[in-house]
Amino acid sequence: MKQLTLVLSLLLTILLMGCTISDEELTKTTIDNTKQAFEDTPKDSNEQTKLFSYYLPEEFTIKETKMYNVLLEKGSKSYLLFVNENEEANSKVSYDTLVEKYEKPFISETFEDKERFGYLFVNTLEKNTYEVTVGIGGTKLTTEAKINDVSDAAKNMMDIVKSVHKK
Questions:
Q1: Structurally, how many domains does the chain consist of?
Q2: What is the spatial distance between Cα 7 and Cα 17, in angstroms, rounded to a whole number?
Q3: What are the tens digits of pLDDT across the range 1-25?
Q4: pTM given for the model
Q5: 147, CA 20 to 30 Å: which among 25, 41, 129, 154?
Q6: How far apart (Å, rounded) are the C-alpha atoms in residues 29 and 60?
Q7: How wide is the angle at C-alpha 34 spanned by C-alphas 28 and 36, nearest 5°?
Q8: CATH number of domain containing 87
């Protein structure tokens, strides 16, 4: 009986270790997915506010819309979309503000092309919980995500951010 308990405990420990993603793997996967989304062709807008239009994936819903902000939800998670109409797509102001605010971010990565400056910024809130911000110029989207959701959240967020078209 003791041997069975020991074997089961060992198997459970191995299984749980396999479910946890390493910091290096999380960083690489998140950066790669976000960069690919930045480089992909923007999806067509399917939502509008008075100041801008944007693409919203099917699994997201709109909770509240204000002049420069849209509060989105996906399941129980909230996302805040902010659009600064005075900042162009190549502006670095939002990114620089995050860099000044957080001394040691978990991930700070930038992406650029001829017309746009994009970024991924991930800050550790507590063990296995992160604040994820994705932006292009003056447009940014922020949420909180558990460790296993960071990469997918960042990719979906970049899909939304890159689709924003100011009127």
A1: 1
A2: 15
A3: 544 444 344 343 444 444 567 889 9
A4: 0.86
A5: 41
A6: 22
A7: 100
A8: 3.40.1000
Query: Which one-letter amino acid corresponds to residue 45?
Result: S
Reported as a single tens digit per residue, the pLDDT across 79-93 is: 999 999 999 999 999
pLDDT value of residue 8? 40
Cα–Cα distance measured from residue 84 to residue 99, given in angstroms and rounded to the nearest whole number: 18
Q: Print the domain residue range for 55.
A: 21-166
111-115 contacts at long range (C-beta below 8 A, 24 or more positions apart): 111/34, 111/35, 111/38, 111/39, 113/39, 115/89, 115/90
Angle, CA of 82, 133 and 22, to the nearest 5° = 165
Q: Note whether residue 151 is domain-resident.
A: yes
pLDDT for residue 72 is more than 60: yes
Across the chain, mean pLDDT equals 89
Residue among 55, 56, 81 nearest 69 (CA): 81
Record the tokens describing residue 113, joined without a space.
Answer: 């092309």
* 109 in a structural domain: yes
pLDDT single digits (tens) 138-148: 999 999 999 99
Q: Is residue 2 included in any domain, yes or no? A: no
